[in-house]
Amino acid sequence: MTLTEQLYWGGAGLIVLWLAVFGLALVATRNGTVTPGPATQDFGADPEPPAVVSLLGNQWRGVEHAAAATLLDLAARGLVELRQPGDDPARSTVHLTEAGRAAPGLMPYEQRVLDRVTARAANGSAPIGAIAFRDDERAASWNTALRREIIAEARLRGLSRYRFAPLLGSALLVGAFVPGALFAVAAVMGGNGVRAALFVGVAPGAALAFLLGKALGERATPKGLERAGHWTGLRAWLTAHEDFAQLPPASVTVWDRYLAYGTALGVTVLTSRLLGFDSGDRRRVWSSYGGTWRPVRIRYPRLRPGFGGSTSRLLQWAAAAGVVAVGLWAFAMLRQPDWVVAVDAHSGGSLRRPGLVLSAGWVGSALLGLVVAGKFSRWTLLVAFLAMMPGNFASGSHGWFSDAAAHEGPLLGELAAIAAFGALATYFLALACLEWREPDTITGEVLRMESRKGKQVARFLALDEGNTDLTTAWALPATSQGIATGAQVRLRVSRGTRTIRSAELVRAAMPEGDRVKAPNRGAS
């Protein structure tokens, strides 16, 4: 065995050894078993905050509903107030109190939740639905920071610890890249290039480091297991109340901190759903633009032809649709029954393949349209081949294909397709003509921005103009600079394609929005 082969086998052996050590570490650092305590309504002498209880109740895997539980706990302590003006719990509102405006000594995660409520209830109150974020990235970063602060509190209380000791984690991380080093040396000695050596050297370590990163987290301490058992008893006591799961947020005035702990333990289904600190409902956003809070429904025109198209692109689409219509018409008018006869090389006779002829004409027209539209690729050829396969097997002089091939003039389906593509070409051409008009100017607040697949595809931008409870998203070109969710902007738009031609910042976004540079005027 050569030295190069020995290095490869040595690297493979080290990978197996690393996986074995990693598996043993996972087994040795598993959480212990939580012994449920008896059903009780007692919090204990020094109860943990609901946010920390959320970590314990989720087996140290996460802090689901911790933000909602913290808000309810703040309400139970008089720092905020939750009201339900009618019969619909979703219409509940959160109000700032004098105690909450100058609350000293709050834990970092409590202050974070209170700051979020204060930012949304800048005028003293806000609907509970307005607490949700309008941006996915902002919601994710906020909740990640909240989780870190809750875990830090749990560690200070001796309830949680790192799953892997720092020395063990560092050793596993360094050891993950040792096999790759052997592979890289072997690759160089084997005459491979530097690029190949780097790949075989980094890839195994990256894969093992990924496994290690997925396993890192928290695990229980003996005290944490004991306290988790106690809170399991409280969950059992709360679950015994049949109506507790459907209590609205405003019932915190009656249930006090029990509602907060029930939310942390996953008992309060309705309250947990209504008090969301995530990215919220993308189709229904609360807005105060115009002076009063109201829910605004958003429509996203994903299937609208011409949405976000430029003048040149609209003309290209019109030409493509027109080419398909003309191609289908020409094929249908020129088609003759004797086109279906083909020579069979094996028998010297003839074999009728009407399906092949029809498929070739229809698919050929579609391919020509895709070429004009600039959508032709190797995958298009594969789809075209698959589309023609049924025609290859539709042989014989009987059946629908034979009758259709023998028909003089366009078929009913061909006429419908010709009319549809002709109308589509006319529609795109009309939109292109409308693009020459002076753009309209509108002003409002950005409710949401939604990305779409593809780097060159326009993004959705939902704008609240303050005069309606229903809005349709606009197309913000992908090449434009971003604008902030929550900012007030003045847009110059083309209503036919619902495309934003330029944007001007009127007022910067509030703290809950993602702040990036406003677009340059004239961006397209």
Can you walk me through this structure?
- By secondary structure, the protein is of the alpha+beta class.
- 48% of the residues lie in helices and 14% in strands.
- The protein has 18 helices and 15 strands.
- It is extended and about 95 Å long.
- The two termini are 64 Å apart.
- The relative contact order is 0.10.
- The C terminus is likely disordered.
Dominant shape: extended
Strand content: 5-15%
The value of Rg in angstroms is 33 Å
Largest sheet: 5 strands, antiparallel
> What's the tally of helices?
18
Secondary-structure-based class equals alpha+beta
Total number of strands: 15
How much helix is in the residues? 40-55%
The CA-CA distance between the termini, in Å, is 64 Å
How would you write the strand order of the largest sheet?
13-11-10-14-15
Mean pLDDT: 85
Which stretches are low in confidence, meaning pLDDT under 50 for 5 or more residues running?
Answer: 341-345, 347-352, 391-398, 512-524
Short description:
The protein is of the alpha+beta class and 524 residues long. The protein has helices at 3-28, 50-57, 66-76, 98-101, 108-120, 136-156, 166-176, 178-189, 194-215, 222-239, 252-255, 257-264, 269-274, 311-334, 354-373, 378-393, 400-406, 412-434; strands at 80-83, 93-96, 125-127, 160-162, 218-220, 284-287, 294-299, 341-343, 350-352, 440-450, 459-464, 470-472, 474-476, 488-494, 499-507. It is extended and about 95 Å long.
Set down the secondary structure blueprint.
Elements: H1 3-28, H2 50-57, H3 66-76, E1 80-83, E2 93-96, H4 98-101, H5 108-120, E3 125-127, H6 136-156, E4 160-162, H7 166-176, H8 178-189, H9 194-215, E5 218-220, H10 222-239, H11 252-255, H12 257-264, H13 269-274, E6 284-287, E7 294-299, H14 311-334, E8 341-343, E9 350-352, H15 354-373, H16 378-393, H17 400-406, H18 412-434, E10 440-450, E11 459-464, E12 470-472, E13 474-476, E14 488-494, E15 499-507
Parallel strand pairs: 7-12
Antiparallel strand pairs: 1-2, 2-3, 4-5, 6-7, 8-9, 10-11, 10-14, 11-13, 14-15
Helix pairs in contact: 1-8, 1-9, 2-3, 2-12, 3-5, 3-12, 7-9, 8-9, 14-15, 14-18, 15-16, 15-17
